[in-house]
Design a protein that fits this description.
By secondary structure, the chain is of the alpha+beta class. It contains three helices and six strands, in the order H-E-E-E-H-E-E-H-E.
């Protein structure tokens, strides 16, 4: 880990210690075609899975994640396969188990072992990536887990 990365982790840990959780944004990388993604660090201490969302601008991803944490605080912890409309005015989103968490390096560094759920958003026709007629290219929202068999 380089000095810049160590400082970024230290700064994130300060936020987690102060607020109980924080969001880490990873920008898209055109050289590797990696989509942007954002994820939480610290929800594990509440007994919740960390949350990750792919393919959205950081401000939009941050809003989705903040809303999700608020809903969980007021209601209940999300589970894989759950669809929820409380996070957006334009429809629902769905959670799947994030099996590939290798990119969530700050969570690993600060939390250690953790579970994660990916918040999956539908396209403009309210179609999910695993449904026929999905309009966005796969690389727009990479899935980090298995698509639901009956969503």
């Amino acid at each position: 880990m380089n000095e810049h990365s160590e400082q970024a982790i230290a700064d994130l840990k300060v936020l987690v210690d102060r607020h109980g959780w924080a969001v880490r944004h990873v920008l898209a990388d055109a050289t590797t075609t990696q989509a942007a993604f954002s994820y939480t660090v610290g929800l594990t201490s509440r007994g919740w899975p960390e949350l990750v969302i792919t393919g959205l601008p950081t401000d939009v991803a941050h809003a989705f994640i903040s809303n999700a944490v608020d809903v969980q605080t007021e209601e209940k912890c999300f589970v894989a396969g759950e669809r929820i409309s409380a996070l957006t005015e334009s429809g629902d989103v769905m959670f799947i188990t994030a099996e590939d968490v290798t990119g969530m390096t700050a969570a690993t560094a600060i939390v250690g072992e953790f579970r994660a759920l990916q918040l999956v958003w539908p396209d403009s026709t309210n179609t999910y990536p695993w449904e026929p007629g999905y309009r966005n290219p796969h690389e727009a929202q990479p899935l980090l887990g298995t698509m639901p068999t009956s969503a």
